[in-house]
Amino acid sequence: MIVRYGPQDAQRWATFSGDFNPIHFDLAAAHHIGLPSRAVHGMRAMLDLKQHISKTYLQHTEENAPSLHFSARLKAPLYESHDYHLTSDNRQPQRIRSVIRDAESTVNSIEATLRPAPLPHYAISSPEQTFDPGAREAAFNDATADSSEKLAGWLLPDASLFCCILEAPQTMQVVNDVLPDLGARCLAEVFPVLPMVQTHHDVYFSSTLLSPQSAGAMPLRWHVIPTILMGNRNEGFIFRMGAQGSLSHREHITVLITLKTWPLL
Q1: Which pLDDT belongs to residue 249?
Q2: At what angle do helices 42-60 and 7-17 cross, to 10 degrees?
Q3: Taking each helix axis from N to C terminus, what angle separates 7-17 and 134-143, rounded to the nearest 10 degrees?
Q4: Are 50 and 42 in contact (CB under 8 A)?
Q5: Which of 92, 99, 242, 261 could form a disulfide with 256 if both were Cys (CB 3.0 to 4.6 A apart)?
Q6: Domain 2-261 top-level CATH class
Q7: E-strand spans in the chain?
Q8: Separation CA 32–CA 102 (nearest Å)
Q9: Where residue 177 falls among pLDDT bands split at 50, 70, 90?
Q10: In terms of domain of life, where is this protein from (predicted)?
Q11: CB atoms within 10 A of CB 62
Q12: Does residue 259 contact residue 196 with C-beta atoms inside 8 Å?
């Protein structure tokens, strides 16, 4: 299938997520980091990929694994008003592979897999918090308004935990330790002042959340996973951030994102 994104997609996703990174809206900001055009939110493009890979998994996999692992690598930016091919491959048993590929250059922009895997467990010291996805469900529905299908149940909790990661002060503790001059209270406040892009996205979730009817807008209890930092100011930093949540005693989801910055010379 062909996917294509425009300014309205950027605005809708930013309204839902709070990700107003200027490279998605300002051509000068995109040019500043070497991009030829405004970049599409990686998370917005992955919504379509996640739906496609989930549908393919349900159609071609019979084994009922208790939990699944979605893993995506964002290899190259997607650009506004440009055509991309979204395909899924089910040739490997229990492992679906999906790709978003530039329709002209055939370069893979995003590569992803969905396969059975155990849920991870982290030593959590942060207090449990509650997020009500229903509070943003209308904005999420608006961001996915172009879809004619019922979305897989894990997509809203996944997107909600992404919002939690952006907004949680705890995710900024490590960032502020190495970049105290930013003065940011949360990650969403970093994007306008520090060029930063997402490179990886991992989601572990109970397989019952694969169903389009399963998650709805149930309250999400969640914890911040401690941030891991690599790199330095001369070469740029890589941040690994995450959140672990539960919709019930049987439905769990963990989201891990990797972000990188440009060198801070």
Answers
A1: 85
A2: 90
A3: 170
A4: no
A5: 242
A6: alpha beta
A7: 2-3, 67-74, 84-92, 95-102, 108-116, 129-131, 196-206, 220-232, 236-246, 252-261
A8: 22
A9: confident
A10: Bacteria
A11: 6
A12: yes
At 146-162, the pLDDT tens digits run: 767 888 999 999 999 99
Cα distance between residue 130 and residue 160, in whole Å: 11
Smallest Cα–Cα separation from 239: which of 193, 172, 188?
A: 172
Which residues are CB-neighbours of 146 under 8 A, at least 6 positions away? none
Do the beta carbons of residue 221 and residue 207 sit within 8 Å? no
Q: Residue 63 above 60 pLDDT? A: yes
With b meaning 16 or more CB within 10 Å and e meaning fewer, what string describes 208-217? Answer: bbbebebbeb
CA dist 27 and 80 (Å) reads 11
Residue type, 133: P
